[in-house]
Amino acid sequence: MDKKLIIFDMDGTLVNSSITIANAINYVRSNLGFEPMEQSHILRLVNDHTINPAQTFYHAKAFDRDHERWFSEYYTNNHDKELVLYDGIMELLETLKGKGHALAVATNAYRGSTIESLTHLEVNEHFDAIACYDDVPQGKPHPDMLHKILDELGHNSHNALFIGDGPRDELASQRAEIDYIMVDWGFTDHADAVRSVDDLYKLLVG
After folding, report:
1. 82 touches 17 (CB < 8 A)
2. Which of 191, 1, 198 is nearest to 96 (CA)?
3. Hey, is 52 helix, strand or coil?
4. Quick one: which H or E segment has residue 165?
5. Omega before 141 cis (within 30°)?
6. N- to C-terminal Cα distance for the chain?
7. Considering the domain 18-82, what is its CATH architecture?
8. Identical fold, 5-16+84-205 and 18-82
9. What integer pLDDT is reported at residue 190 of this predicted model?
10. What is the pTM of this model?
């Protein structure tokens, strides 16, 4: 494969953060005085691009500073106990980097918790750019963060590839006119997805 800009979603693609996301959402709900939601229910909804997540999880029109503060607080206190890279991701990133590809992350997580997570998992330095929910006017499925990464690194959309695990990622890639690969070892199950990190490695590296 020619040298490309390869952009990864974080949660459910690079990082197995299902427990942390569900627990962090329930931590915010607890601070708001709401009962906890079932983890499986949260994970079914977290990639649903048809819902307003602030309304669904917190009964609010939009996320506010308290939501961000409490969510990040849970991440800070628990990421070292709950977050792990999917098996094979470290080797994949190191191989792609060694072959001269530019690497980036586009995530709907907040920047503080994203940097904290990637640093803890010892992969932050692998990425040439990181775009987060609070870096752009609109998160995925809007293409804003993909455009930000392209502009920051001086790449065009036709030399880029986006790898994600849900419809928000797929829609963002379509709107940014970037090639897309769906994976399904995270939160979603898609019929045409790449089903293992080994298969993704073979697809990208050969």
Report:
1. yes
2. 1
3. coil
4. none
5. yes
6. 8
7. Orthogonal Bundle (1.10)
8. no
9. 75
10. 0.86
